[in-house]
């Protein structure tokens, strides 16, 4: 499993620092907390299944009150969740949620870890979960994190039972107990032992809870008081936890910052019981471990620490560093050296960055960079040399107090520099439930460290340090001010289809458009474009040269080629071959205000939906919800889509002549509410009466799924129905047609069970469980060994028009190019007046 990794060791008394994009000094209050953490030896690992599962209140207390190193291990990156911010799903959503977790950890101070498990969507029990996840593989990843982080206490958020509320939640507890025992066993995953030693935590606990009607706490359990006020933070740990958790914006996980203490409960799962503290039986300080000299040195530094002049602690810190360097315990020495080196650098007031004025770069090209350096303490730091990737420049220059030094240098990006993308997305996933990681020693990390760094050799006192500054992009944003982000390495040429999905009827040629984006000054010649399916060439065209930065060209695939492919959904692949190199990647760029710019690369592909896909609508109104692909899909299908705004519900259009003026809504053949519109659109309560009038006059209203969380209105339909947390997680669950002759199932497309084949992730979620007699349910379906559900689609006549509530997962099926789901959704839009 574990492949050889070339490791460069920096010998002697050297430390290597590498931060996100800048090395900056911590605030005095943070340095003080780091000093107290340096004094404490225990570590805690909190473990659950998803981003936003962690108990941020407990993490905040452990880090800031108990001053112990704490990590959160989320088995998944949340890829299968729902997105309240936009249309991203799958890998893109997992990338967003990874960085939301990292932003949360910046606030509460904990570390972050992951396994290779993919969140494949909601599962109802561990049996369902382990049909997807390979238990041994996930256990191995957890063992690796335990052996590498070496926690003394592991805390699970969930039990392995139905009380966990989600199959992946329960599975996290199952895996945790297996890993707790396996981490100390040399026979378990021995390939890891080339890099780490075995490790046995003291205890494994379950952090019991009260969630809604489920109460798993008991007064005979271990109880801990948390949430205390911290004057250095200016808030209690429960308030800090609310801020941290509210950074999970894509999940709509905004949480109140609650002041005041509260009780957390714990019960033993494995290991040694604890009676009064999480840390019973552990050596919590250096003194307890037998290193009295180190304990006394840290105590003196803490007691004399000057918040206004942290540099006064430098001589004592440098002396303490020598003592820690002499420790025989390799793992403890490494951890505490890393910690004290960061403290020393912060106390010196050192800041460093290497920036350029463009966000993207190409391997082999040259760019101008600026190295900005400053130390806020006079004569404490000496810059000895700078390694500029390929050459070294010596300086032996003291950084004088609070004076900025800027050094300009032109550098070539190494010709073999990899594209900038998350390590877990660099290769195709092993399967739908496990990421493929090229270098197994990266497993567990939230992201890989930057491979492109300028390396500084510094001297502080008599000690030498090396500081790695990643190549970065810096700009002044008129709203956000200075923005510093990672320099993104991109291909010399990017290739993408101008739309992700194409619809083509039988016996028609397919016209597609390809966009070529050139990121370098290099000229491309002797090129050829290839359009392929399943490795077979469908169309090839010579394209001798590209001498512009951005160009879009249309190509036509003959109908005979398409007719020879006996599927109704196919993935079209494109590449451009020039001068012996193949370019076949498109950039996926994700940008939200609360996150850095996120990038990965996907194959240049598009989905082609073939066959008889009919629609009888020309113009559709759309009420935005949490974000889905449906407006784009309908435009691709040739339907005009207008996103409705507040004024559209009150305004009128002049039809002239005898008809006079009409309400604006009357111009639409159908109106669609986006997913979770009742959770995101706060004007919906004002708009619903106009929508009911639209339906009564002969309109066609389709409402997609909503949840009861943070709902704008209580009554969504003109007739009542009750939304429940009912769902069908098996995407291949059998579908029974309750009314096969219903107009929604026969016009303009004849819907059969074939149209429910090939669905992805789920049938749907948040099905109603009760509804007024005016509604007609159209389908019945159920997961294995569960009661049938009929709430997947409810239809009601209202006046001359039609109202359809459908929590079926069209927002997942249409981006995936599912032909049957498209046919069914277009039937809903095309419903004829009564």
List keywords for this structure.
834 residues; alpha/beta; nine-stranded mixed sheet; seven-stranded mixed sheet; 46 strands
Share in helix: 10-25%
Radius of gyration: 30 Å
Give the N-to-C terminal Cα separation.
64 Å
Principal-axis shape equals: globular
Quick check: average pLDDT? 93
Q: Based on helices, strands and strand pairing, what is the structural class?
A: alpha/beta
Low-confidence parts: 1-19
Total E-strand runs = 46
Largest sheet: 9 strands, mixed
Fraction of residues in β-strands: 25-35%
Count of DSSP helices?
Answer: 17
Q: What do these coordinates show?
A:
With 834 residues, the protein is an alpha/beta fold. 21% of the residues lie in helices and 32% in strands. α1 packs antiparallel against α9 (292-303), α5 (135-149) packs across α6 and α10 runs antiparallel to α11. The chain is globular, with a radius of gyration of 30 Å. The chain starts with 15 loop residues before the first strand and ends in a 5-residue tail after the last helix.
């Amino acid at each position: 499993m574990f492949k050889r990794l070339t490791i460069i060791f920096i010998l002697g008394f050297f430390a290597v620092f590498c931060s996100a994009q800048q090395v900056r000094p911590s605030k005095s209050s943070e340095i003080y907390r780091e000093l107290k953490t340096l004094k404490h030896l225990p570590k805690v690992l909190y473990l659950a299944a998803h981003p936003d599962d962690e108990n941020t209140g407990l993490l905040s207390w452990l880090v800031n009150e108990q001053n112990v190193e704490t990590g959160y291990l989320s088995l998944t990156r949340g890829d299968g969740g729902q997105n309240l911010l936009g249309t991203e799903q799958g890998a893109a959503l997992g990338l967003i949620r990874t960085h939301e977790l990292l932003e949360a950890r910046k606030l509460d101070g904990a570390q972050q870890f992951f396994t290779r498990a993919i969140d494949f969507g909601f599962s109802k029990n561990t049996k369902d979960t382990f049909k997807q996840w390979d238990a041994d593989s996930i256990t191995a990843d957890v063992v690796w994190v335990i052996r590498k982080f070496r926690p003394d206490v592991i805390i699970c958020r969930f039990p392995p039972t139905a009380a966990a509320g989600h199959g992946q939640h329960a599975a996290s507890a199952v895996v945790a107990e297996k890993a707790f025992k396996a981490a100390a066993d040399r026979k378990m995953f021995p390939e890891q032992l080339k890099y780490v030693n075995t490790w046995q935590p003291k205890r494994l606990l379950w952090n019991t809870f009260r969630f809604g009607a489920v109460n798993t706490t008991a007064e005979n359990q271990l109880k801990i008081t948390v949430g205390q006020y911290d004057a250095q933070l200016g808030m209690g740990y429960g308030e800090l936890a609310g801020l941290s958790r509210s950074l999970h914006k894509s999940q709509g996980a905004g949480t109140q910052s609650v002041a005041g203490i509260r009780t957390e409960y714990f019960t033993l799962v494995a290991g040694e019981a604890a009676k009064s503290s999480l840390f019973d039986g552990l050596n919590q300080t250096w003194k307890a471990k037998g290193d009295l000299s180190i304990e006394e040195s840290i105590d003196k530094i803490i007691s004399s620490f000057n918040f206004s002049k942290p540099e006064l602690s430098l001589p004592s810190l440098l002396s303490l560093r020598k003592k820690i360097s002499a420790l025989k315990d390799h793992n403890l020495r490494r951890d505490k050296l890393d910690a004290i080196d960061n403290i020393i650098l912060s106390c010196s007031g050192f800041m460093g960055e290497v920036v350029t004025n463009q966000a993207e770069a190409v391997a082999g090209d040259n760019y101008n960079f600026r190295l900005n350096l400053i130390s806020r303490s006079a004569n404490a730091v000496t810059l000895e040399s700078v390694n500029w990737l390929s050459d070294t420049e010596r300086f032996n220059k003291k950084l004088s107090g609070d004076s900025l030094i800027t050094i300009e240098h032109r550098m070539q990006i190494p010709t073999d520099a990899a594209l900038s993308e998350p390590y877990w997305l660099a290769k195709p996933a092993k399967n739908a439930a496990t990421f493929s990681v090229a270098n197994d020693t990266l497993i567990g990390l939230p992201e890989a460290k930057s491979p492109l760094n300028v390396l500084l050799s510094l001297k502080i006192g008599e000690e030498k340090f090396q500081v790695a500054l990643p190549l970065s992009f810096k700009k002044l944003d008129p709203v956000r001010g200075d923005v510093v982000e990672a320099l993104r390495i991109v291909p010399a040429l990017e290739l993408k289809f101008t739309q992700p999905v194409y619809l083509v009827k039988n016996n028609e040629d397919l016209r597609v458009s390809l966009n070529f984006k050139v990121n370098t000054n290099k000229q491309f010649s002797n090129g050829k474009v290839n359009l392929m399916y399943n490795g077979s060439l469908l169309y090839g065209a010579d394209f001798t040269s590209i001498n512009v930065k951005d160009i879009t060209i249309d190509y036509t695939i003959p109908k005979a080629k398409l007719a020879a492919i006996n599927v109704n959904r196919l993935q079209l692949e494109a590449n451009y071959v020039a001068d012996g190199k193949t370019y076949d990647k498109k950039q996926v760029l994700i940008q939200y205000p609360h996150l850095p710019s996120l990038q990965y690369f996907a194959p240049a592909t598009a989905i082609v939906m073939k066959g008889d896909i009919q629609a009888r609508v020309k113009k559709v109104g759309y009420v935005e919800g949490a974000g889905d692909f449906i407006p784009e899909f309908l435009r691709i299908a040739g339907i005009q889509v207008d996103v409705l705004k507040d004024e559209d519900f009150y305004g009128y259009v002049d039809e002239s002549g005898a008809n006079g003026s009409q309400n604006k809504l009357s111009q639409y053949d159908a109106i669609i509410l986006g997913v979770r519109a009742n959770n995101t659109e706060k004007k919906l309560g004002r708009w619903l009466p106009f929508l009911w009038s639209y339906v009564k006059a002969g309109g066609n209203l389709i409402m997609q799924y909503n949840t009861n969380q943070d709902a704008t209105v209580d009554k969504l339909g003109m007739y009542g129905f009750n939304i429940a947390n009912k769902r069908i997680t098996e995407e291949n669950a059998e579908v029974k047609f309750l009314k096969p002759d219903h107009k929604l199932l026969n016009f303009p497309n004849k819907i059969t069970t074939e149209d429910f084949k090939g669905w992805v992730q789920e049938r749907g979620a948040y099905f109603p469980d009760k509804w007024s007699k005016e509604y007609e349910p159209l389908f019945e379906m159920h997961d294995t060994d569960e009661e049938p559900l009929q709430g997947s689609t409810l239809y009601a006549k209202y006046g001359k028009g039609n109202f359809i509530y459908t929590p079926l997962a069209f927002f997942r099926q249409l981006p995936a190019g599912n032909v049957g789901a498209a046919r069914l959704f277009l039937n809903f839009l095309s419903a004829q007046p009564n």
